[in-house]
């Protein structure tokens, strides 16, 4: 076999091996953060990269760093994504990027043509998905100084297990820290624009702004039969109105140029009994847009609706934690470098925006960052049917290899 064929075979073989951890009957994976399935995937990844000469370290919140030293003492070019998944998630979300990063690093190290200026680190960020422990992008948020480590370590899952306990149970916690000069990430698009436009590679220009809120609707527990309608303070009714209001805000505030996307992704009813009017509902609502002014207007309308719902349905709505990510551009020089690499490889590419959050959303705030996408069939994601073809995955690894080799040679940032 030629070197190229060997590399192709080995990436796909490794991808298939990786996809067996936490595999679900529907063809997806369930690897929520710091569960045993996540721990198994992390250990498998450690074995894989150690076999290629990497050294593996963990920081205080379980971020996993695979280090490849090319220039002793030099700062690192980091390539990352995440191996954790949603419950009944897809095989590609995050995991593709971590494995692609490892293969790109291995290829760059074996094919070095010029004197490298940097070392390479492949990072598996802890808890990007934010389902077992909230919020999402937890590991990269601590790494970039947005959330204190102590707060994350004390965060508990619904059964009361803390992040610290869960990480200790899978043995992937340490005290490492890394000196990063630039960050690269490749991910599946999770949208359909590349597929619709017949492109293989998306060069991500900017993130959408996203405001995420934890709301609590407070009512009064009562008998579902014996309590007169006029006397009710039905938390479930108020929460349902809020879910509908969020959709109406998206419909009313989207413009031809700037879409607004809203969602309620989690909804917990108390006491959730057949003959009890709900006393409380906890729900999460998020509002996103590509444009800061459109997002602000939609957000203000959502909060105005909250007040109206309180009055109309005789409930009280409190707002708990909120997480705000402003719409922000990626590094323009990085975008140009990635475009030139894609052209050199003859890969059809275009500029896109990301609707979803990624660890690069955090990293771009502290170092120059390049974000790349490969297509998602029909835009399906956070779903067992998520799919990216072998050819598209391999094209992404080729592009990432080219970008990494030029960044390591000093074409993007200086040591
Ligand atoms: Zn992801």
Observed structural traits:
415 residues; alpha/beta; Aminopeptidase; Alpha-Beta Plaits; 2 domains; 8-stranded mixed β-sheet; 4-stranded antiparallel β-sheet; 12 helices; 14 strands; 23% strand; globular; binds zinc ion
Structure overview:
By secondary structure, the protein is an alpha/beta fold. The protein folds into two domains: 3-207 and 327-408, Zn peptidases (Aminopeptidase), CATH 3.40.630; 209-325, Alpha-Beta Plaits (2-Layer Sandwich). Helix content is 36%, strand content 23%. The strands form three sheets. It has an eight-stranded mixed β-sheet with strand order 1-2-4-3-5-14-6-13. Strands 9-11-7-12 form a four-stranded antiparallel β-sheet, with helices on one face. The longest helix has 22 residues, at 292-313. The model has no long low-confidence stretch (mean pLDDT 95). Bound molecules: zinc ion. Zinc ion is lined by residues 82, 93-94, 128, 187, 358.
Average pLDDT rating? 95
Low-confidence stretches: none
Here the CATH topology of the largest domain equals Aminopeptidase
Biggest sheet strand line-up: 1-2-4-3-5-14-6-13
> Beta fraction of the residues?
15-25%
Structural class from helices and strands? alpha/beta
CATH class of the largest domain: Alpha Beta
Molecular shape: globular
Number of domains: 2
What Rg is obtained from the alpha carbons, in whole angstroms?
A: 23 Å
Number of beta-strand segments: 14
Find the CATH superfamily of the largest domain: Zn peptidases
Ligand names: zinc ion
